[in-house]
Write a structure and sequence with these properties.
Shape: globular
CATH superfamily: Methylpurine-DNA glycosylase (MPG)
Helix content: 10-25%
Order of helices and strands: HEEEEEHHEEE
CATH architecture: Roll
Structural class: alpha+beta
Low-confidence stretches: none
CATH topology: 3-methyladenine DNA Glycosylase, Chain A
Number of domains: 1
Strand content: 25-35%
CATH class: Alpha Beta
Number of helices: 3
DNA sequence: GGTATGATTGACT
DNA sequence: GTCAATCATACCA
């Protein structure tokens, strides 16, 4: 079951929270989203802050598409474009609980410990073989597959990771009690 | 044209 | 705990 097309046509913060518990597959490989971060164009930490550029063009495109960027020259990280009126916003997918194609992810990661397969944006990118070729693609069409969750999952909130600005904005969301977060969340 | 920087990870002291 | 890897992009000249 795919997501409603309007799912991503909302505030990034709302979408980030609602993505927790959704299953993400890329060519049949992936798992349950257990950690996300929201990036709003008014947020100085966001790539879309300051307007549209060559890198972040996808963030200003249609909601429900992918925005892929190179992090620290080493890793590929994936966002889901989410905003109203193409103002530039997105949700960083930080961690998955591996459920599909685990053997494939282990081979790509060179690691057999499930907790290290997708726990972090860079690891997730490597496990799913994310590349810039996916930038701008519709998440509701192959090779992507998003499965709507069947119930509401308990969500925890915390500060975002690795930022030099905007750290005070608590826009990181996680599936409560998950063993697959990239970092722990503050005790609730 | 040149330089600074980063939504990270993994290895090492 | 500290630090290097590595490069596309952004920004300045």
């Amino acid at each position: 079951m795919s997501l409603d097309p309007k799912f991503f046509a909302r505030e990034p913060v709302i979408v980030a929270r609602d993505l927790i518990g959704v299953t993400l597959l890329l060519d049949g490989v992936g798992g349950i989203i257990v950690e996300t971060e929201a990036y709003d164009p008014l947020d100085p930490a966001s790539h879309s802050f300051g307007g549209k550029t060559a890198r972040n063009a996808s963030m200003f495109g249609p909601p429900g598409c992918a925005y892929v960027y190179r992090s620290y020259g080493i890793h590929w990280c994936m966002n889901f474009v989410a905003h109203k009126s193409r103002i530039g916003g997105g949700v960083l997918i930080r961690a998955l609980e591996p459920t599909h194609g685990i053997a494939i992810m282990e081979a790509r990661r060179g690691c057999e410990r499930p907790k290290l397969l997708c726990s972090g944006p860079g690891r997730l990118g490597q496990a799913l073989a994310i590349t810039r070729a996916l930038d701008g693609l519709n998440l509701n069409a192959p090779p992507f597959a998003l499965s709507k969750r069947q119930k509401r999952f308990p969500v925890v909130v915390g500060p975002r990771i690795g930022l030099s600005r905007g750290v005070e904005t608590p826009w990181r969301f996680g599936l409560k009690g998950s063993e697959f977060h990239s970092r722990g969340f503050p005790a609730t």
